Amino acid sequence: MKSITIGASEPIPVAYSTEDGNDVLTYSVPANAANGTFRLELIDAEGMNYGANKVTVSSSALITSGADRVISGATATFTGINLDRVASLEIGGTKISEFTEKTSTAISFFAPALEDGEYPMSGVMNDGAEVQFYKNGQVETTTTVVMSSQQTLWSGHHYVSWDLPDDSPNKTFNLIGMDVFAGIKPGSVMSIHYSVEPTAEYHQLRTTTVWWNDLPGTGTIEFSTDGVAEITLTKEALDMIQEQAGFICVGHGYYVDLVTLR
Question: What pLDDT, on a 0 to 100 scale, did the predictor assign at position 20?
């Protein structure tokens, strides 16, 4: 393809690149493009037109990620589109108008030091219009953010069983990189929230290095209900993680649901 049109626009040149083995088509939306949803048309070198999907053009600041959970008093980064047009945000009544980064696709700021909990969040653009938030498939002008004194290292629902083959991704929980632990201060406490697999005959959890050596002060945890394992990351433990290829959880019959740091 040589160019595209958006609705009734003039042809817009396109560029191609490859990311992760996929062809990517890139183009610049004209600054005077009207807001709305329009049909795309692809135009090849011979001038032939081909119908494509619809695209929504918006001049509004839209935050698409990062706004679900924020660490109190720490730097928060939101990503989206037209974020260089954000004048201020408000979280739980605290106005934020100073940003450490502000580009068209990202804004960063120091989050207010609020108590743990859920708070309403909204924002205003330079022209006085409301900032938009994309959440659960909907675009809203207000959202709810969880303020926490704990940093989330990972969240999900990852099954663990040492009965599985060595090449199974669920043989262990190995989803937090060594670079994360390189930046952790000794004495920090890591909390591993786990839930049981009800069909498993037994439930055991160990926190080890990739070499399957237990971290200092830890051992086998046997359980029959959901719970939290807390590990104090001493200098010895952090050094061990770096020297033995990283951190993993091993055992059988449970899911890792959340890993936090305080």
Answer: 66
What global pTM score does this model have?
0.54
Structure tokens at 91: 């979280």
In the numeric block, which tokens belong to residue 249? 């959880």
| Structure tokens given for 34 | 């009207």
Between the CA of residue 94 and those of 6, 65, 88, 97, 241, what are the distances in Å? 40, 20, 10, 10, 39
Q: Phi/psi of residue 236, each to 5°?
A: -60, -45
Residue 35, strand partner residues: none
**Quick one: pLDDT at residue 138?**
82
Note the helical H segments in 115-252: 178-182, 235-243
The span from the CA of 187 to the CA of 42, in Å, is: 57
Tokens 């993680």 map to which residue? 241
Q: Are the beta carbons of 244 and 213 closer than 8 angstroms?
A: yes
Residue type at 15 in one-letter notation: A
**Under DSSP, is residue 61 helix (H, G, I), strand (E, B) or coil?**
coil
For the chain, 262 residues long, the average pLDDT of each consecutive 10-residue run is 80 79 76 77 85 78 88 84 94 94 92 90 94 86 88 91 93 93 88 92 94 93 92 94 96 94 83
The total number of residues written for the chain in this structure: 262
Rounded to whole angstroms, how far apart are CA atoms 241 and 120?
Answer: 39
Give the residue ranges of DSSP H helices in the chain: 178-182, 235-243
Please check whether residue 112 is in contact with residue 119, taking contact to mean a CB–CB distance below 8 angstroms.
no
Using the Cα atoms of residue 186, residue 259, residue 116 and residue 133 in order, give the sign of their dihedral: positive
Distance of alpha carbon 191 from alpha carbon 228, whole angstroms: 6
